[in-house]
TrEMBL record:
Protein name (Swiss-Prot/TrEMBL): Ionotropic receptor
Keywords, alphabetical: Cell membrane, Glycoprotein, Ion channel, Ion transport, Ligand-gated ion channel, Membrane, Receptor, Transmembrane, Transmembrane helix, Transport
Domain Ionotropic glutamate receptor L-glutamate and glycine-binding: 225-332
Principal location listed in the UniProt entry: membrane
Transmembrane segments: 352-377, 418-441, 601-621
Pfam families in the record: Lig_chan, Lig_chan-Glu_bd
Gene Ontology molecular function: ligand-gated monoatomic ion channel activity
One CC-aspect GO term: plasma membrane
Membrane topology per record: Multi-pass membrane protein
Highest taxon, organism lineage: Eukaryota
Origin organism lineage: Eukaryota, Metazoa, Ecdysozoa, Arthropoda, Hexapoda
Family statement: Belongs to the glutamate-gated ion channel (TC 1.A.10.1) family.
Source organism of the structure: Lasius platythorax
UniProt keyword annotation of Electron transport present: no
Compartments (UniProt record): Cell membrane
Amino acid sequence: MFRKFDISSISSLIVLIWTIVMFDLAWGQLIRPTYVYEGLIGDIRSYFNNTCIIFLHSSPNSYEMQGLTEDNLHLMHLQKYLSSTLHIRTAFMDFHMFTTQVGQSYNKIKRPLFVLLNTNEDTRNNFANVSTWIMMSYPTWLVFFDNETNLEDFFFNVYVPFDCKFMVAQSSINETGKEIITEVYQIHKDKELRSNQFGVWDAERGLEGPSHGLYQRRNDLFGQNLRVASLQDPPVSLFERNEQNEITGISGFFGEIILLLQEELNCTFTYKEAGSWGMCLPNGTCTGAVGMLKNDEIDFAASEFMMTKQRLDYVSFTTPIFSTKCRAYIKRPESASIIKWDTYIAPFSVNIWRIIVFFIIILSASIVFIQKLFAIASIRLQDNSPSRFTEIIFFITGAFCSQGMDQSTLDPVRMVHLVTYLTAVVILAAYSAALISFLTVKTFVMPFTTMEGLLKEEGFSCGVIGNSAYYTFLQRTTDKVMSQVFDKLIRKETIAKKLPTSYMEGLERVCREDKYAFVTLDNMAALLQQKVNCKLEPLDVITPTTIAMTLQRNSPYRGIINAHILLLKDSGILQRLLETQWSVQLGASTTLWKSVEIGDIMPLLFLMIIASFISYLVYIIERIIYKNCFKRVKIKTNKSQKLKK
Ligand SMILES: *[C@@H]1O[C@H](CO)[C@@H](O)[C@H](O)[C@H]1NC(C)=O
Ligand SMILES: *[C@@H]1O[C@H](CO)[C@@H](O)[C@H](O)[C@H]1NC(C)=O
Ligand SMILES: *[C@@H]1O[C@H](CO)[C@@H](O)[C@H](O)[C@H]1NC(C)=O
């Protein structure tokens, strides 16, 4: 009936339990005055912001009607106070009912506060039973101790994990009405119970809680040994070994992080090597570091793990270390060998060329027009400047190529000359600038930039690190293109057992083979770019990813490790580490001088050769045509020159 237990059913449960409680509870459940329960529970609840309170009790003779005893009346008051006055959902439940009817669905209740009203024998035993199957750190606990019980006895055989919020309320011996609240935890199952004073409570002042947060109070693992695994994945993480080939430490980015953590947490590490990051098969077997975490071989994996939903079923992640993007990289296509025939006209668009031609014609036409006007007005031209339209066009074009023109005696024509020169200077400057950048900036044409393009391109193959989150990500993706990429390209590689096992291997293959794309992280590609001997080019982003380290699922150390990673972040240490360890040489390979290759000036050379060839041709043709009259022309000109003199 209560297999699916959630908040909404709590209210109906309360009604049910209300009636049960009235007749159910044995004598002696309450060992404090009601006002202590009311006040302390209310204050603890508001300190931890719990959304609901569940009282767990043992009721030895549950079917005997107790009637409205004094105890039950007090309980009624207590519940009425909490639910009506403080508006907190409250339920009374005996351990048996809790185990059978709520069972594993307890984790559907959000932020519950579990309260034990006393520590009598039955309560203790039932509680010890419950502690074997419940995740102790999920609820907040509050137990009222009587004066006879001591902590060690009560918690005998009960494991209170490191991240558990377990409060014990004990009456002060000196002051009546004052409660001393102690929090208890263990570093590890085999370690002793530790206790700190959490605060004190009395009716007037209420709860005086601790001034520090949970992990500021519990900031010491007292030398607890954590088993850490990492991967041989230089330069991000690599192992240091001694002569016996035992791993003594990890260096690189993650090595630095865990050293800082070790110092802060006061713990020790033993290291193991994982073969891969790991992924989980549909039947639940996991490989690599993820598998080691799942099988309790290690506590912590210090390497870069992509945070994915699939992995969450098997491990838990620390707080994110950094974010990056995941995409495929290919080798930069060759560019130098191509002769670009349009290099010398490409700097200007066709329309600009048209306007320049138009300008030349307009300017020539206006010169002709002005000269004609003067001719009509019968003003004799004193100079022998050219007057034919074609000739003038030739000179104006010359001016645009920064050649001089003969001076004219006519002022309007001079004005036109001025306009011509100014325009030519501007156009020439713009053209030179554009041409230089055209010649020096090496452009290369990407065959494609998207994964879709990769699919369509013939003969391309695509790889991803086997046994990794990328692999699982591509395998399980709902994106159409990506699942096609997986089905058509990656599956083939998997079957051929050619998937790389490290980033370096994958990127080297990108350089070695002409048509190979490799899916990796931006950070990694940037870092390893210096180590491979070709230029890598990214395709479009497949997905943004967040990188974290991993811990065992529900690891009790997750909270304290997260707290310290956040401290590292806040203090800027993490950022500094990222900058020094991840992008060391990024600045080193900055722009070198690019030289203009022979291919770039090829069009110009051709133009020169063709132009001289044509001019020789024209010269020869002229020679043949005018052969007969050549001498006469010469004599004529000689005569006219003599005449002029
Ligand atoms: C409870 O909520 C308050 C305000 O929202 C917050 O300041 C406080 O830190 C919370 N307490 C805990 C233990 O989360
Ligand atoms: C670190 O742990 C050891 C126990 O291994 C303990 O003796 C020592 O006091 C702890 N150091 C700090 C600074 O808490
Ligand atoms: C799951 O499948 C893998 C191979 O497909 C196999 O090696 C492994 O033993 C299987 N595990 C279980 C628990 O069936």
